[in-house]
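Sample entry follows:

:::
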Amino acid sequence: MIGKVYDWVDSRTGIKTEVEKKMSQAVPGHIYFYCFGGISLFIIFLQIVTGVVLAFFYEPDPKMATKSIEYLSNEVPYGWLVRNMHRWGSTLLIATIFTHMVTVFYRKAYRQPRELNWISGVLQFLVVFLLLTTGIILPWDWRAYWSFAIWMDYVATWPLIGEAFKNLMLDTFTMNRAFISHVMILPMFLFLLLRFHFKMVRKHGISEPL
């Protein structure tokens, strides 16, 4: 029965041919050097799943943000697990992406013709870092408050634009805007960068050892 369903789907989508094509591709023997890229992608998928669950309970309001997180963690079955997976997953994601970048840089895989692979990877790291910083703010507890204060003090140290940018951030900051940036704007940029990044990897392949 399952075979008939599979054949029916394959006759209309060509999925069998596509799967066989991908499975037949040669994999370099040194692929383990780049496994952190795949691990990072897996963690991103986990972040999406856990983030969707969190969005059902979180309220982007300074008075309700902490209470909504507490309700999720203490009252919702396995809510504590989902929240901790999302929270620690963000830190782990930064670590795996950074390790992947170090590996690529060490093996000089950023050189011609893979310059765009490298640039898109760096941009992805920056977007993930922004996702981390906006995510820290959202619970609006003491940790979030002081994280935001520290970041604003750091921004003020930037030459020329630092003070003006800090004042702009403080004047325009709202929980709702931070929430929209975290769940809509930044993930959209990350998706576009990931799509471009993997297209470049498919085009040029994985670099050989030097």
The chain has one domain: 31-204. The mean pLDDT is 86.
